[in-house]
Each structure stands twice: as structure tokens, then as C-alpha cells.
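User: quick one, sequence for these C-alpha cells?
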């Protein structure tokens, strides 16, 4: 099948490469000619494990091409995926900014030729798919099309395997013909017995927000438990394991930490709150989840300050991990970048390291010192803080770190280390919700 992806960002590029791998002819289109030139020259604009090899393979085998030409890309497509960004609006009110989607759809509509399924892939507020259909009908009254909502559930760092082995495929569609096209597109998954949930447009749009909000609330719940554990002298790691072994609850997403970040949870929880507000209904649990997450980040600042004896002024802090999670170069809403600046403002010197995120962080925070290894970051530091659980930080040589540091405070915001072993190495150990 001929498929066009409008928007070659994270979701568009991963989806395009994976659909090409399924055997479809895919055009990844973007207005950004620098990005398209870079891709045409064999570059990959984002860091995602396995993506480069997948793109190279499908380009070499002739199933994946990149283009800036909307007309040519859309004319021959049987399905056009809209995967342009939906950032939180610049007004800072939590609404998703749909300007990019609507502009792309308006521009695309006039080039539709023959029956085409227009697929909303971007995470969008409830009602967007119907609005997209209205825009297309207005811009091109002769167009023969259906709009489908097909939310993605890709995790950064694991996006390819999430696409190839999803828990489910959600198809919001009110046309049997369009549903048939979608099933053909995802045929390889059908053969793997992946559950398909076919539903209305509004339900599909809401499913994405509900799934992300539930996961975000689950993290806030365990972070709240971690705070209670600290207050009563209990261990949240054992608590999470025991609670999570209840099959009704499940063990995943019960890892306490410095609060969730990334491109989805912060943005989608706020957008869901706005959807609820607009419709005059309460979303108190999600609201609390968002508040607990902000409080968790603030609590981490205090935790670091307390471990430094009540003041960070004049102290050197080694920060390990800047991205919001491992295996990505994404810094959006990264806890490290919320927690470190207030410490800097109060007079701390910051020496940081990250396997992927240093270049972009340096543009935002030029006054931090950027180290070439975790050990260099720890040189002369009073405390080391582990923000992101990259594999290379999971088995650090504690004796070597201790030897280069000035102080002996080890703050493990991901509970990666065994406190006893860290203490044995001569450190004061501080975790999240544990003794
Ligand atoms: C998430 C969803 O998992 C994915 O389905 C959706 O499509 C996009 O949003 P992503 O943002 O890539 O994916 O990362 P995820 O692995 O879900 O982690 C999000 C944040 O939660 C990270 O900051 C992570 O460190 C944090 N987290 C996750 C925890 O603090 N504890 C956990 O137990 C799990």
C-alpha cells in the first residue's frame, strides 16, 4: 500500500520506518527541508535505538523515501498519516496547540486523489478528528476520504519494539471501508494476534489520554508512597514489589524517582485536564497526579540540599543523567533540568554528564560544567546525584568515585544502587523512599 506520513518528527519517522518494514511503500514528508535533506543523506535527526538501521534498510530496499513535496507525496497515497507535533500551547494553559495539524491538513486536502484514509496519529484532544474531516471537506469538497484516529503508544528508547509488538492497536473509525484499510496496513500485527480495538473517533482520542494519565498517576502514586515510606521508616522498593505482585495492580510503572518527564505524560495530563474542564467535568485524580509530580521535583531539590547539610551554596554537585529517561536524547520536561537550576541559583557548582543529552543541555545552561565521563563529573564534588538510570551508571566503580570526590554524599534518585554497598564504599547513601 502507498502510505504518506506528514510530519517526520519522532512519531512520524518511527511509524514510517516500521510501516515500510511491514512491506508498504512509505513517503515521509516534512516541510523542514533541512531535516529532509539530512535524512536523504543518511542522517537520523533523533537518537532512538535501532532506528538508523531500520531506516537504512528500508531506504536501500526502496520502500522508504523522504520528501518536502506535499502534492507528489499525497496524490498517490491510499492512506495519509498526520504525525505533526502537538506541543502544549505557548499560552501555557495546558491546551494542545493544534495549529500545525490544521495547517498541514488544509494544505494536504487539495492534493487528495481517489479514496484516501486520513489517519490522525498525533495525540490530539477529543473532537480533533471531526474537525480534521470538516477542514478537508471545506478545502476540497470533491475529496473522497475518511478520517481515522489511530493513537500511538510508543515509548522513547523502545519505540521500534513497541511498534512491532504492541499491546493493542486502537482504530477510531466510523467507516467500514476505512477500518478495512487500517487492518490491511497493520496486517502483520493481525497475524501475531495483536488485539485490535475498533471504536468511535472520540473514544480513540480519549483512550490515548486515559492510558497516559493512568500511567502518570501510577508513578505519582508510588512517589507519594515513597514520601510516606521516608516519613515512617519503610522501604518503598519492597513495598512496590509486594503491591505490584497483585496481578490486578501489576509491577510496571511502580518505580519511584524524581518525578515523570518526557514529551507525553506532562503534556497529555494537562491536555486531559483541559478537555475535562471544557466539558464542565472534574478530573480530580489526574489533577492530583500532576500536582504530586511537581511536588516530587521540588522535594528532590530539598533532598539534595538536606544531604548537603542544609545549604548548597559553594558546594559542587555532580549530576549524572540529564535526559528524562535512558536511551533517548530527549530533554523535554526532564526532572534533572527542573531540579538542577534552583541549586545553581543558590550557589552550587554543577558538573554534569549524560551519554546523549549534553550538547542540547549546554545550549540551555551554558554555565554548567560538562564532563566527558561520570568520573570526571565527580571530580572534587561534595555530592553525586544520579538522575537518569542509564546502563552505564548502573555499575559505577564506587571506590574510584569516592577517591576523586571531595565529599561522600551519594544521592540515588532512581534507587538503582544497593544502599548497603554504597555505604560500605564509604558514602552517605540517600535514595527515594528507602532507608
Ligand atoms: C510514554 C508512554 O509510556 C507511551 O506509551 C506513550 O506513547 C508516550 O509516553 P515515554 O514518555 O517515552 O512514553 O517514557 P516512559 O517510559 O513511559 O517514561 C515516562 C517518564 O516516567 C520518565 O520520566 C520515566 O523516568 C518516568 N517513570 C516511568 C518513573 O518515574 N517511574 C516508572 O515506574 C516508570
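Assistant:
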Amino acid at each position: 500500500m502507498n502510505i504518506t506520513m506528514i510530519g517526520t518528527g519522532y512519531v512520524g519517522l518511527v511509524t514510517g520506518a516500521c510501516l515500510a518494514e511491514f512491506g508498504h511503500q512509505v513517503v515521509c514528508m516534512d516541510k523542514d527541508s533541512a531535516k529532509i535533506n539530512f535524512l536523504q543523506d543518511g542522517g537520523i535527526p533523533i537518537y532512538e535505538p535501532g532506528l538508523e538501521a531500520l531506516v537504512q534498510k528500508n531506504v536501500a530496499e526502496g520502500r522508504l523515501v523522504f520528501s518536502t513535496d506535499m502534492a507528489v507525496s499525497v496524490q498517490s497515497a491510499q492512506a495519509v498519516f498526520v504525525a505533526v507535533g502537538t506541543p502544549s500551547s505557548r499560552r501555557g494553559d495546558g491546551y494542545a496547540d493544534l495549529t500545525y495539524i490544521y495547517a498541514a491538513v488544509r494544505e494536504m486536502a487539495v492534493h487528495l486523489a481517489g479514496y484516501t484514509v486520513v489517519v490522525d496519529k498525533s495525540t490530539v484532544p477529543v473532537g480533533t478528528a471531526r474537525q480534521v474531516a470538516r477542514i478537508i471537506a471545506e478545502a476540497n469538497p470533491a475529496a473522497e476520504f475518511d478520517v481515522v484516529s489511530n493513537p500511538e503508544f510508543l515509548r522513547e528508547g523502545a519505540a521500534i519494539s513497541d511498534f512491532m509488538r504492541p499491546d493493542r492497536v486502537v482504530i477510531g473509525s466510523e467507516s467500514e471501508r476505512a477500518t478495512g484499510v487500517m487492518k490491511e496496513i497493520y496486517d502483520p500485527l493481525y497475524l501475531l494476534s495483536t488485539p485490535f480495538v475498533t471504536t468511535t473517533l472520540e473514544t480513540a482520542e480519549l483512550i490515548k489520554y486515559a492510558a497516559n494519565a493512568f500511567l502518570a498517576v501510577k508513578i505519582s502514586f508510588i512517589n507519594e508512597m515513597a514520601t510516606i515510606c521516608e516519613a515512617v521508616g519503610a522501604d518503598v522498593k519492597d513495598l512496590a514489589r509486594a503491591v505490584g505482585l497483585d496481578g490486578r495492580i501489576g509491577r510496571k510503572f511502580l518505580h519511584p524517582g524524581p518525578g515523570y518527564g518526557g514529551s507525553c505524560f506532562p503534556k497529555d495530563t494537562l491536555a486531559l485536564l483541559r478537555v475535562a474542564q471544557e466539558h464542565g467535568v472534574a478530573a480530580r485524580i489526574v489533577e492530583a497526579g500532576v500536582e504530586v509530580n511537581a511536588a516530587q521535583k521540588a522535594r528532590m531539590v530539598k533532598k539534595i540540599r538536606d544531604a548537603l547539610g542544609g545549604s548548597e551554596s559553594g558546594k559542587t554537585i555532580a549530576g549524572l543523567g540529564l535526559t528524562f529517561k535512558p536511551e533517548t536524547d530527549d530533554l523535554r520536561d526532564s526532572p534533572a533540568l527542573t531540579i538542577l537550576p534552583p541549586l545553581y541559583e543558590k550557589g552550587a557548582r554543577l558538573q554534569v554528564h549524560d551519554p546523549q543529552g549534553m550538547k542540547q543541555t549546554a545550549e540551555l545552561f551554558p554555565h554548567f560544567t560538562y564532563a566527558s565521563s561520570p568520573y570526571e563529573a565527580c571530580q572534587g564534588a561534595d555530592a553525586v546525584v544520579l538522575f537518569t538510570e542509564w546502563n552505564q551508571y548502573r555499575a559505577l566503580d564506587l571506590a574510584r568515585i569516592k577517591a576523586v570526590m571531595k565529599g561522600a554524599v551519594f544521592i540515588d534518585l532512581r534507587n538503582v544502587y544497593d544502599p548497603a554497598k554504597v555505604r560500605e564504599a564509604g558514602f552517605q547513601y540517600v535514595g527515594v523512599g528507602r532507608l
